[in-house]
Amino acid sequence: LTISRVEAVPYAIPYRKPLRFASGEVRTADHVVVRVHTAGGLVGTAEAPPRPYTYGETQASIVAVVDQVMAPALVGTSALDRSVHRARLHRTIGNPTAKAALDMAVWDVLGQALGQPVHRLLGGWTDGMRVSHMLGFDDPAAMVAEAHRMRDTYGISTFKVKVGRRPYRLDVDVVRALREEFGDAVELYVDGNRGWTAAESARALHEMADLGLTLAEELNPADDVLGRRWLVGRCPVPFVADESAPDAASVTRELLGGSATAVSIKTARTGFSESQRVLHLAEGLGVEVVVGNQIDSQVGTLCSVVFGAAHEATSRRAGELSNFLDMTDDLLAEPLQIRDGRLLAPTSPGTGVVLDEERLTRYRQDR
Ligand code: MUC
Ligand code: MG
Question: Are 287 and 264 in contact (CB under 8 A)?
Answer without folding.
Answer: no
